[in-house]
From TrEMBL:
Residues 33-140 form the Glyoxal oxidase N-terminal domain. This is Glyoxal oxidase N-terminal domain-containing protein. The lineage of its organism: Eukaryota, Viridiplantae, Streptophyta, Embryophyta, Tracheophyta. Pfam families: Glyoxal_oxid_N (PF07250). It comes from the Eukaryota. Residues 1-15 form the signal peptide. Keywords: Signal. PANTHER family: LOW QUALITY PROTEIN: ALDEHYDE OXIDASE GLOX-LIKE (PTHR32208:SF21), SECRETED PROTEIN-RELATED (PTHR32208).
Length: 140
């Protein structure tokens, strides 16, 4: 998975092509289905949970157990990550329910509210309250 961020640079001479693409990370660990930039400048990437392991592990002892998951009932891989474009660092986040066909919106306080999904994600609400890049925050 390649993580790209569109960087806009406005100059009179470049008026027809105001942006550039820059590769920040060769592998984000997940296939991002949703991407959202927080008010701290970090980027939340979110994938579905029902297609097996991702390419980035959750911290030890922090696995997701779901006996109803059709692909993987004991999953120690992350299905959401936080990208810090300032350092190109990627940190795994723990999402508990499937986000396929979900939707998201930022609340006035900057919290990302993610609703719905398929299978065990149906009728679920998830919240990500962003934190400064040097702190640890995760989905609730």
């Amino acid at each position: 998975v390649v993580v790209l961020v569109n960087v806009f640079i406005f100059r009179a001479a470049d008026a027809q092509l105001p942006g550039t693409w820059e590769l920040l990370a060769e592998n984000g660990g997940i296939a991002s289905m949703h991407t959202a930039v927080t008010h701290y400048g970090t980027v939340v990437l979110l994938d579905r949970t029902d297609i097996g392991e991702s390419k980035i592990s959750l911290p030890p002892g922090n696995c997701r157990d779901d006996p109803n998951d059709q692909a993987l009932q004991h999953d120690c891989s992350a299905h959401s990550v936080l990208l810090n474009p300032a350092t190109n660092g990627i940190r795994p986040l723990k999402i508990l329910t499937d986000t396929w066909c979900s939707s998201g919106q930022f609340l006035p306080d900057g919290t990302l509210l993610q609703t719905g999904g398929a299978m065990d994600g149906n009728k679920k609400i998830r919240k990500f309250a962003p934190c400064p890049p040097d702190e640890l925050c995760d989905w609730t």
